[in-house]
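Lecture notes, continued. The same structure-token format from the folding unit now serves as the input rather than the output. Read the line below as a description of shape only.
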């Protein structure tokens, strides 16, 4: 890097350096000015440190929204993330970053204060009814995706530091108290679903704590109902993506799990299989054979949205307000812990990646000695 200090006609000092751009490989010249030689030398030193680190002399002048748009179309799309995860990243960035004030900030001017302002803005967002739109967990997810996008900006040589990494006190992602029902409320909700095709699916979620997509993705080949220890394996999940159902792997490695079945749940499944045989006969050639356990009248997997509607409808009928599928999952975990199951057992059943996640979510429940989790919960619920 060649350099030369000069004094301009206006009395300010100027330092010109020639260097090879670490990103493009092109030969470039950059000028630094200041009132004193010391000020200019400090700027040149900072530039040299950036070059030594393989970064550009100055950060990119494009806006955060422009970079986010490019990142979504390139780095994110090329990654090995699941389609549903990609869709979530796109939604979080387009709705809560690119359209916010921070989206208009140039990368070379983006700092910690801008990230902190984003947190304030997101906390202030409300629904049409005036309720808070985003929970702390949701804001945390926005920041997680933004951090990944800016980490890639660093890797591409557009900026030297990621301001999200400088946050000392981040929104709390886990540990928020979860909505859960008492065993009596769960029983009321399940009774309210009797006579509908969602009665047995809701029984299964309530007694196992499966995620909605995991339940819908179950196939008969995942079950062993005839052995001395009936069990099933969670192998896949189904979600709605871009207007259609998407079959994919479970959420995490821990999500792929094998669980024992209680005698009550074996009975529920046998009743489901009997009902499905009758439906197949009625549907005739319209039946779609996919080996799925919980299906529509023509054999296709249930739509996740319809399962959610079924829970909401049953909740209203039972007089249980503001309930969704997650509430049933959380209720199952809470009941298992209250019935004496240890935290590790419940963590495995829920498919959490580590026991710390379970501990944070269910900190309000005491940890007891383990018993047979599925059997005790099913018996308590009369399933």
């Amino acid at each position: 890097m060649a350099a030369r200090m000069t004094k301009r006609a206006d009395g300010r000092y100027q330092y010109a350096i020639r260097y090879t751009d670490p990103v493009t490989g092109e030969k470039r010249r950059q000028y630094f000015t200041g009132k004193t030689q010391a000020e200019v030398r400090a700027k040149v030193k900072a530039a040299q440190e950036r070059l030594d680190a393989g970064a550009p002399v100055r950060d990119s002048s494009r806006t955060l929204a422009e970079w986010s748009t490019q990142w979504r179309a390139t780095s994110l799309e090329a990654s090995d993330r699941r389609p549903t995860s990609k869709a979530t990243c796109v939604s979080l960035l387009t709705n809560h970053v690119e359209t916010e004030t921070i989206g208009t900030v140039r990368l070379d001017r983006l700092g910690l204060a801008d990230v902190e302002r984003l947190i304030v803005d997101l906390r202030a967002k409300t629904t049409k009814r005036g309720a808070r739109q985003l929970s702390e967990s949701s804001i945390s997810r926005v920041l997680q995706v933004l951090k990944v996008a800016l980490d890639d900006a660093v890797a591409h040589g557009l900026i030297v530091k990621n301001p999200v990494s400088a946050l000392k006190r981040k929104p709390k992602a886990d540990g928020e108290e979860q909505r859960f029902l008492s065993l009596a409320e769960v029983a009321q909700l399940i009774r309210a679903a009797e006579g509908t095709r969602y009665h047995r699916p809701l029984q299964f979620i309530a007694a196992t704590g499966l995620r909605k997509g995991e339940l819908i993705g179950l196939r008969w080949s995942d079950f062993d109902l005839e052995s001395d220890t009936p069990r099933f394996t969670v192998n896949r999940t189904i979600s709605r993506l871009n207007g259609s159902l998407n079959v994919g792997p479970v959420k995490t490695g821990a999500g792929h799990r094998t669980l024992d079945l209680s005698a009550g749940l074996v009975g529920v499944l046998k009743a489901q299989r009997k009902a499905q045989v009758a439906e197949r006969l009625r549907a005739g050639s319209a039946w779609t054979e996919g080996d799925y356990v919980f299906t529509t009248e023509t054999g296709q997997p249930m739509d996740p949205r319809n399962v959610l509607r079924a829970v909401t409808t049953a909740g209203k009928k039972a007089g249980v307000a503001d309930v969704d599928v997650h509430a049933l999952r959380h209720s199952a975990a809470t009941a298992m812990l209250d019935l004496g199951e240890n935290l590790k057992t419940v963590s495995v059943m829920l498919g959490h990646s580590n026991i710390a996640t379970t501990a944070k979510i269910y900190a309000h429940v005491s940890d007891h000695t383990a018993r047979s989790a599925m059997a005790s919960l099913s018996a308590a619920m009369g399933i």
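Point for the exam: Residues 6-53 form one domain.
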